[in-house]
Amino acid sequence: MMLRCALRRHPLFLPYLALAAVCLFWGTTYLAIRMSLETFPPLAVVAVRYTLAGVAMLGIARVRGMEVPRGADLVVACTTGLLTLGIGNGALVYAELLVPSGMASLILTFTPFWMVAIEALFPGGERLHGPALGGMVIGLAGAGLLFVSREGVSGSDLLSGFLLLQFCMSGWALGSILQRRRPGIAHPAIAGGIQMLATGLAAAPFALLLPHPAYHWSTRGVCAVFYLVVFGSVVGYSAYVYALDRLPVAIASLYTYVNVVVAMALGWLVYREPFGAREALAMLVIFAGVWVVKHYSAQKRTAPGAELLARASTAPFRPATGRERS
Question: I need a labelling partner for 66 at 20 to 30 A (CA). Which of 16, 117, 139, 160 fits?
């Protein structure tokens, strides 16, 4: 009891609690996406999730008296939302039709590689150097182990899913970098709500008009979508903004690694997705490559993209909002 009281009095108790919530909720979203696909086609998942989440986020923000941006700031928020969430999360949802949810989460740890590569293409961006390239090579070696171990997944599906997830990460990275290079004045909750709502509304017409498989209504699928709305988007994102605002980047970014462990464990428990020695080794090798890239970026704090690269993560569905700008 005394220890519990002491922890609650710690000035960082709530930020660490928020970070724990991020690790849990965002780690479970991969499984929730797979469950939602039992009922809804991919575009419907994206449309319903982000329309409802965007309305909720903007409603909460307005009740708290936050102003909605106009003009160029509004355009930037919508554009970056379509890149980070529309392409990023949309491609992830489609990829989970091809590869297990846990494997998708592991492949998405390549996001920092896309961050450094795209940043290098921009004027004034940090150039690619030996350590960063070396980290990418290490990560690709880990990905190679996934192709060696493909129990329960056809080689063509794994390759298609892997390539689709590269598209997913490229959209998230480009949107994040554009957001950083075009600072806005909106509060993160407002910017995040706009990004979510823009993505949901953009996906809705395609979800309604394009041919799609028949809906197979199930309680589990419907509940999974609402879980994504409430815990994956509204609660998870709010907790992330709170934790990032109060904890060092090095600590806040630890959820990157925890999410993968949670996603792979849940995929194995619920769907018996393949997970053995080779997958575990692939995870460690990819983590090593990501650590090298992040560590190298941390040594380049004076470079224009250094802080952004330090915040790179595996969560393509995480909006890149104003609070992330230094």
Answer: 16
Backbone angles phi, psi at 40, to 5 degrees: -110, 150
> Among residues 112, 88, 228, 83, which one has the least CA distance to residue 165?
88
Q: Give residue-wise pLDDT tens across range 228-238.
A: 999 999 999 88
pLDDT digits (tens, 9 = 90+) for 64-76: 888 888 888 888 8
Q: What is the C-alpha to C-alpha distance for residues 127 and 121, in angstroms, rounded to an integer?
A: 8
Question: Which H helix or E strand runs over 62?
Answer: helix 42-63
Structural domain including 164 reads 27-324
Instruction: Kindly report the number of other CB atoms within 10 A of residue 268's CB atom.
Output: 17
Residue 19's nearest CA partner among 280, 228, 224, 257 is 257
115 in a domain, yes or no? Answer: yes
CA 319 to chain centre: 8
Domain count for the chain? 1
Q: Is 253 helix (H, G, I), strand (E, B) or coil?
A: coil
Is residue 315 within 8 A of residue 122, CB to CB? The reply is no
Name the one residue in this structure whose structure tokens are 């590869």. Answer: 99
Dist CA 78 CA 275 (whole Å): 38
Task: Report CA 187 to chain centroid distance, whole Å.
Answer: 20
Cβ-based burial of 122 (10 A; exposed 0-12, middle 13-18, buried ≥19): middle
Q: What is the spatial distance between Cα 22 and Cα 32, in angstroms, rounded to a whole number? A: 15
Calculate mean pLDDT across residues 188-202. Answer: 91
Cβ-based burial of 70 (10 A; exposed 0-12, middle 13-18, buried ≥19): exposed
* Rounded distance between C-alpha atoms, residue 47 and residue 197, angstroms: 9
Is residue 13 in some structural domain? no
Q: Is residue 56 part of a domain?
A: yes
Residues 99 and 183: their CA atoms lie apart, in Å, by 36
d(CA 73, CA 183): 8
Nearest to 317 by CA among 77, 46, 15, 17: 46
